[in-house]
Write a structure and sequence with these properties.
The protein has 199 residues and is an alpha/beta fold. 37% of the residues lie in helices and 15% in strands.
């Protein structure tokens, strides 16, 4: 069971993002404030859960959270300000969209940038330690996976419905055959360079 809070008697929002390592599509972040006494044995780092478990937990989280929000930073923003800053931007948008203002933020990862005055703690691998960060990772991942599934109907041939835009063999084969789509991140390296070996 994950930890319910970093400090008791304090309204904490867990924040996480998904899609940082993808070659296309927006980066998506979520922020979740859970009741201090809330616990669910399935809530964990979204990467450790099956697709069906993640999807079944979305409603569970939304129905039980004090507040939740999902936000994104676009492909254009990623290309303009880089993926790390775009991740922070998406997280800040999710935090700003919460209907209840938290007293403290639990940020997954080792770095964060914000103009908000809300204090925060960066927690490495926080989505495997704190329930609110895990809940945020689940909301963000299910939202983004569905988005990439929808995009795969507009731009078929890249297997986004199964790889969500990550650099898998099927995705790279699609790029080789058909080139880039308007939702590919132009600032990313899409194909590994060919290495010539001189014997």
């Amino acid at each position: 069971m994950l930890l319910p809070y970093l400090e008791s008697d304090r309204l904490e929002a867990g924040c996480d993002e998904v899609g940082r390592g993808c070659l296309c599509g927006p980066v998506v972040a979520a922020a979740v404030i859970l009741p201090e006494d809330y616990a669910h044995e399935l809530i964990n780092d979204s990467k450790k859960l099956s697709k069906s478990n993640r999807e079944s937990l979305v409603l569970e989280i939304k129905n039980n959270a004090i507040a939740w929000a999902v936000a994104e930073a676009s492909v254009e923003e990623i290309d303009q300000i880089n993926i790390l800053n775009a991740s922070f931007l998406a997280m800040n948008r999710a935090i700003d969209s919460l209907t209840v203002k938290p007293a403290h933020l639990l940020i997954d990862g080792n770095r964060f940038k914000t103009k908000s005055e809300i204090p925060y703690s960066c927690i490495i691998k926080g989505d495997g330690k704190y329930a609110s960060i895990a809940a945020a990772s689940i909301l963000a991942k299910v939202y983004r996976d569905q988005l990439m599934c929808d995009f795969s109907e507009t731009y078929p041939g890249y297997a986004w419905e199964s790889n969500a835009g990550y650099p898998t063999k099927a995705h790279r084969d699609g790029i080789r055959k058909m080139g880039l789509t308007p939702i590919h991140r132009k600032s990313f390296r899409h194909l590994p360079e060919q290495i010539k070996l001189d014997f």
